Amino acid sequence: MTELEKKRKHTPAPALTEWEYAPAPEARDIVHLEERYGLFLGGRMVEPRSGTYAATIDPSTEEPLAEVAQGGPEDVDLAVEAARGAFEDGWSALAPSERAKYLFRIARIMQERSRELAVLESLNNGKPIRESRDVDVPLAAAHFFYYAGWADKLEYAFPNRRPRPLGVAAQVIPWNFPLLMLSWKIAPALATGNTVILKPASTTPLTALLFTEICRQADLPPGVVNILTGNGRMGATLVRHPGVDKVAFTGSTEVGKDIQRALAGSGKRLTLELGGKAANIVFDDAALDQAVEGIVNGIYFNQGQVCCAGSRLLVQESIAEPLIAKLKQRLATLRVGDPLDKNTDLGAINSREQLDRITELVASGREEGAEIFQPACKLPEKGFWFPPTVFTNVAQSYRIAQEEIFGPVLSVLTFRTPEEALEKANNTAYGLSAGVWTEKGSRILWMAQRLRAGVVWANTFNRFDPASPFGGYKESGFGREGGRHGLEPYLRFDE
Ligand code: NAP
Ligand code: MG
Fold first, then answer.
1. Could you count the other beta carbons within 10 Å of the beta carbon of residue 376?
2. What distance in Å separates the CA atoms of residue 416 and residue 315, rounded to the nearest whole number?
């Protein structure tokens, strides 16, 4: 051994990973919470006829944030009455350019209050402020801007088809993107001249309740937007109500099927945006470092609680080893913790129920024989947390390769040929999204034509734009949201 080699052996290299970030918390006091929230019906906050309230919490600390009204059947009746009244009493007949003005106004107020909305979204959902600030809130405002632009151009969007609004839309949304899903639902419905009753998820009602202030600030006529908080049972009552003309649902496949059965033969129009088990497919000619970033964004964005998450990684066999090594290295740099810290990459899981579901599926992965990797990370003591997780040695039959985990858990499978990649990617009951990583344009097109998925991303993942339609095949649902396509489910045509 030379002197230099000896010296190297005894001086350990500086451990770069031990650098600590200073805390960089976003101020929480921009948000003013009421102790108690009623129902937003006919343009006013009213007490629920049911007389019941439930606490909503911060999932990162389990601290209660506010009490929220739990609507019952009588409240559903009142909401439908308010929405019907507003529809007939002017909204449906309003000049389309006037409707557009309200939507533009809402979009601008959302931008003005974006910091408040982002902090509140992170508080109630557990997602990192970096995401609520840079993704959820700007995209939510963008949806209102986008559909404001269509409101007075429907005759051009559907030439010779005489588009007419449907009436009252009942919209039920999940907890993973509370404000963004509200925008995906409300913006196209209002642009086409419908009135709405929106039911937020039980665990994340607060940004929808703040949105009621925005409606009032924008002078939106009373009853055009109604926010009805309550549990799943109330959601079931709402979608079945005879006064509802259109149902739009985003959530689990199980509830989606239940709604579809209940509405069969009722004449109500229905769109369903349900779960997914997307394949993110990396070919041997892909730029590996970019692919690693895309994989991380695909499955760890919003703690993996994303219907279009790239939860199945399909890697070409020849590059599996280096790719997985790079991925594990990258995982060790992810920061898990306080959602309001600007340096946080992964926040809290939204609820204990969801955490239990993730924990159960991860246990099944171990039992079935997959190999688990989790970087060392210290999780906070209170709240609902799960570390970023990768499973290798996964067989297609394992539950972690089949079922939607809806958490920060990636299952890695390998393939040899494009045909095999395609077959494995399509071997799922779902069909919401997919990703393809390769240098070859021809291969991207070949794959995109054959993947049974509503969205196919090429050399990127989880990219959204209001102008681009989104929706599923098979058990991922039907109907499209976004783009010109997103107008159609809210219209009938006098042809
Ligand atoms: P979920 O039960 O389908 O909830 C979605 C929405 O539907 C919530 O507002 C919920 O209200 C409401 N709801 C529940 N039961 C209903 C019924 N019978 N009729 C009408 N509305 C009803 O989903 P979850 O229980 O929150 O999550 C379970 C699994 O679904 C997750 O693990 C994930 O795999 C999947 N998921 C998918 C998406 C997606 O974006 N596609 C979103 C969320 C969850 P409450 O909140 O009051 O129960
Ligand atoms: Mg549920």
1. 7
2. 8
Q: Is residue 307 annotated as part of the catalytic site, yes or no?
A: yes
Å from CA of 232 to ligand 2 middle = 7
CATH assignment of the domain containing 48: 3.40.605.10
Residues 124, 257 within the same domain:
yes
User: Which ligand 1 atom lies nearest to the CA of residue 200?
Assistant: 9
Among residues 307, 404, 475, 481, the one annotated as catalytic is 307
Q: Which residue range forms the structural domain that includes residue 53? A: 36-274+476-494
338 and 225 housed in the same domain: no
Render pLDDT for 175-220 as a digit per residue (tens, 0 to 9).
999 999 999 999 999 999 999 999 999 999 999 999 999 999 999 9
pLDDT (tens digit per residue) in 139-186: 999 999 999 999 999 999 999 999 999 999 999 999 999 999 999 999
**Average pLDDT in the chain:** 96
The closest-lying atom of ligand 1 relative to the alpha carbon of residue 432 is 41
Active site residue 475: no
- The structural domain count of the chain equals 2
Q: Tell me the three state secondary structure of residue 196.
A: strand
193, 165 Cβ separation under 8 angstroms: yes
433 and 331 belong to one structural domain: yes
Report if pTM > 0.90. yes
Give 390's strand partners: 373, 410
- The verdict on the CB of residue 387 being under 6 Å from ligand 1 is no
Residue 451: give its domain's CATH number: 3.40.309.10
pLDDT band at 21 (very low <50, low <70, confident <90, very high): confident
- Strand 371-373 to 389-392 pairing: antiparallel
User: What is the CA angle 133-312-466, rounded to 5?
Assistant: 35
